[in-house]
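On clarity, I found the account of how folds are encoded harder to follow than it need be. Since the whole study asks how a given chain folds, the encoding of that fold should be made plain. For illustration, here is how one protein appears when written out as sequence plus structure tokens:

:::
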Amino acid sequence: MYKDMDPQQRRTPRTSPSGVHREISGEYRPESAVRARTLDCLVRHAPAIDGVWSRDVEPGDWVVVRTRNSVYSLHALGDGRFRVAGGWFASNGCDNRDIRISGCTWGGCAIHTGLVAAPGMWLEFGNGVRTTCIREVRLLRHHDDRTH
């Protein structure tokens, strides 16, 4: 059935942390061809997104993002800035660059600025670089073991 369809129209199941398959982005779904993802729908469902939220990241934390093509490591510096390595930055000689994260998109131009990274979305950096679809995100907490 799918071999004759344009690759952009194929549905792509993803697995949530609970192991349940779910559809992502605004891709074509044969069972609901008349339904479309509107901005209102995206906004309404945004609080339920299972990802790393910028409000939860503290200075010293690490966020590791695995996309379809690359792995990025993001070291939180505070004030919304990260030291980024891997992926596009490694390929272009820009590893360990301090940069802001603009947010995540659903594959289009609507961006959620409160997210650092979430599976099924695309991470967009402050320099305009956008990753391929995110497959996995891990937040590694920094623990300050110093005694005061």
User: Anything to note?
Assistant: The first strand starts at residue 13 and ends at 15. The helical segments are 39-45, 87-91.
